[in-house]
Specification:
By secondary structure, the chain is an alpha+beta fold. It contains 3 helices and 9 strands.
Length: 162
């Protein structure tokens, strides 16, 4: 059976959109340290306080365990942190933390709830209450991954039910 022109266009469009979505997935690398993110000692203390409230374990050194990147959350600046060893699972997924400044202090966008675990993340394309939506991509197995989308409710990120 010969494919129709419309079917070919549909498949091509789907592949393009899927490739675009995968290219947006980001993760932090070894060069993205607290020093590279230019965190002052006070900011580092705020970050560690915020992250320790939503981490599933406590490393010997937060600055060694975490990667850090300053990001644009939409209407305000933010910070993404990702575990590297202790805060990771066997399939390559690590805890991902997103913080924003509230009253000059870094605060977790997951409140005191456990931060999600994934191999990567991306922001947008939409924003809710002025903060970009967050999607966390988790590696479930060799050939399967899952995504959880979060929207800002005015105080913190909440998972969007599919």
């Amino acid at each position: 059976m010969r494919p129709t022109r419309g079917g070919t266009v549909l498949v091509t469009s789907f592949v393009f959109v899927a490739a675009l979505a995968l290219s947006q997935v980001q993760s932090l690398d070894a060069k993205e340290t607290f020093a590279a993110a230019r965190l002052s000692s006070q900011e580092a203390a705020d970050v560690i306080r915020a992250v320790s409230d939503s981490a599933f374990d406590i490393p010997d050194s937060w600055e060694t365990e975490l990667r850090a990147r300053r990001v644009d959350l939409g209407t305000e600046a933010g910070l993404v942190l990702q575990g590297t060893n202790l805060l990771c699972g066997g399939t390559g997924n690590c805890q991902i933390f997103v913080l924003r400044k509230v009253n000059q202090r870094w605060t977790s966008l997951f409140r005191n709830e456990q931060a999600p675990i994934g191999e990567g993340y991306f922001f947008g394309p939409k924003a809710t209450n002025g903060v970009k939506d967050l999607t966390v991509v988790a590696n479930d197995s060799f050939d399967h991954s899952s995504r959880v989308k979060y929207r800002f409710d005015g105080v913190a990120y909440t998972a969007v039910k599919p």
